[in-house]
């Protein structure tokens, strides 16, 4: 809702071609891609490790604390990993939103200087 309200308050037509090639915007896109790739690879690797270890080794059958095996520990660790990734995503998304807002504000100022 806030974005729509802010958009209604600023009737300035932005130069998107200039904004897309700007250094701050390019840094934003690069950091978002890097974050998305890293978290996706980590999530998939961690998630797929459980069935791989379960089917192709006996590591997860060894006792950790009676009556729990390493398999149970790894399965429960996946819940914590998912919550951790979600928490990290929320923090990073807030940073990305702030950077995007800064890019838009800089473009609005630039449009004001150009007299458009």
Describe the protein in words.
This protein has 116 residues and is mainly alpha-helical. It has one domain. The chain has 4 helices and 2 strands. It has helices at residues 2-9, 16-20, 23-56, 70-114, and strands at 63-65, 68-69. A two-stranded antiparallel sheet has the order 1-2. A hairpin with a 2-residue loop joins strand 1 (63-65) and strand 2 (68-69). Helix 3 runs antiparallel to helix 4. The model has no long low-confidence stretch (mean pLDDT 86). The chain crosses the membrane at residues 35-56, 68-90. Keywords: Membrane, Transmembrane, Transmembrane helix. It holds the Pfam family DUF485. This is DUF485 domain-containing protein. It comes from Priestia endophytica.
Q: In short, what is this structure?
A:
The chain is built from four helices and two strands; from the N terminus they run αααββα. With 116 residues, the protein is mainly α.
**Biggest sheet, spatial arrangement of strands:** 1-2
Q: Regions with pLDDT < 50 over 5+ consecutive residues?
A: none
Number of strands: 2
Computed structural class: mainly alpha
Helix content estimate: over 70%
Largest sheet: 2 strands, antiparallel
SSE map:
Elements: H1 2-9, H2 16-20, H3 23-56, E1 63-65, E2 68-69, H4 70-114
Antiparallel strand pairs: 1-2
Helix pairs in contact: 3-4
List keywords for this structure.
4 helices, rod-shaped, membrane, transmembrane, about 120 residues, DUF485, two-stranded antiparallel ribbon, transmembrane helix, mainly alpha, DUF485 domain-containing protein, single chain
């Amino acid at each position: 809702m806030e974005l729509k309200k802010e958009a209604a308050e600023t009737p300035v037509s932005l130069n998107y071609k200039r904004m897309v090639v700007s250094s701050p915007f390019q840094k934003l896109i690069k950091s978002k891609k890097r974050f998305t790739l890293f978290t996706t690879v980590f999530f998939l690797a961690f998630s797929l490790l459980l069935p791989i270890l379960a089917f192709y080794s006996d590591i997860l059958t060894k006792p950790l604390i009676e009556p729990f095996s390493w398999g149970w520990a790894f399965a429960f660790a996946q819940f914590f990993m998912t919550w951790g990734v979600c928490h990290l995503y929320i923090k990073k998304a807030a940073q990305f939103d702030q950077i995007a807002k800064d890019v838009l504000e800089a473009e609005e100022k630039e449009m004001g200087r150009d007299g458009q």
